[in-house]
Automatic annotation (TrEMBL):
Lineage of the species this protein comes from: Bacteria, Pseudomonadati, Pseudomonadota, Alphaproteobacteria, Rhodobacterales
Name of the protein: EamA-like transporter family protein
Annotated transmembrane regions: 33-53, 65-86, 92-111, 118-136, 142-163, 175-196, 208-226, 238-258, 264-281
Membrane topology: Multi-pass membrane protein
InterPro entries cross-referenced by the UniProt entry: AA-Vitamin_Transporters, EamA_dom, EmrE-like
């Protein structure tokens, strides 16, 4: 029962990232760049002390090309995630993100010549088809092309981030190190952005609170909880649990932000999540 509760809390945290980001942007409380910077800074501020409290050290985390790829992928994920939610509803964005993460990781398995069962091929094809139908102009639900591409890039970046971190001895320490480096890089990029003519960073107190909660609680502590319980879950169970994230984000967007659930989106979500669920069946 404790494990089930922990999984439920972690999935709620992941879904809440979409709702918090969307709430800050549609309410005019923050621009996407400022939100992303604050999110990374808050995540680093929570994860780094957590590693030290645990008796570890970020200095012991390997660096080099593996670290560079992780930091770059994290920056792309957070930046594109924030920009996409200027136009996408919380549930729609979460579905595109989740589908692209799974497809990217499937592609990584194929490229690394891992054995891929037939059901995983079929499931990935169904999920990809559902996303293609959802994003095809004038066919599925209405998805702004630019915002959809941004969220697809965020999903691909998170998939690369996950693939890059596989085999890491301490994934939580690796994530903390990535957040620290990415937060520093984001501050520098944000400063450069604000110097560009006509560009500026804008966030009010409400937007800052939403970004800090997203970074410190639903990202930082959410990841810490997930990595703590992940060893207790079978790979298929962990993947299946994440199927709930787009559904929870859709419910949060409908209840808290007044976003509508269209029949086209419901059909696309069923196809994408059904395909992913099929790919998780071992036999």
């Amino acid at each position: 029962m404790k494990l089930l509760l922990a999984v439920a809390i972690a999935m709620l945290a992941f879904a809440a990232n979409s709702v918090l980001n969307r709430a800050a942007l549609i309410g005019g409380h923050s621009d996407p760049v400022a939100f992303g910077i604050l999110r990374l800074m808050a995540g680093a501020a929570v994860l780094a002390p957590l590693i030290w409290w645990r008796g570890g050290s970020l200095r012991a985390v390997p660096g080099g090309s593996v670290r560079a790829v992780g930091v770059f992928a994290l920056l792309i994920y957070v930046g594109c995630f924030s920009l996409a939610y200027l136009q996408l509803d919380a549930g729609l964005g979460a579905l595109i993100l989740f589908g692209c993460v799974q497809i990217t990781m499937f592609g990584g398995a194929v490229l690394s010549r891992e054995p891929v069962p037939a059901l995983r091929w079929i499931g990935a094809a169904i999920a990809f088809g559902g996303l293609a139908w959802l994003l095809w102009p004038g066919v599925g639900t209405v998805v702004p092309v630019g915002a959809g591409a941004m969220m697809a890039a965020a999903g691909a970046a998170w998939g690369v981030y996950s693939l890059n971190g596989r085999g890491t001895g301490d994934p939580l320490a690796g994530t903390a190190a990535n957040f620290v480096w990415a937060a520093g890089a984001a501050v520098l990029l944000g400063a450069a952005w604000s110097l560009w003519p006509g560009s500026y960073l804008r966030v009010d107190a409400h937007g800052a609170v939403l970004a800090i909660v997203s970074g410190a609680v639903t990202s930082g502590l959410g990841y810490a909880l997930w990595y703590r319980i992940l060893p207790q879950l079978a790979a298929s169970s962990a993947g299946a649990a994440q199927l709930s994230v787009p559904i929870l984000a859709t419910a949060g967007g409908a209840l808290l932000l007044g976003e509508a659930l269209t029949p086209a989106f419901a059909i696309a979500a069923s196809i994408v999540l059904g395909g992913v669920a099929l790919s998780l069946i071992r036999r």
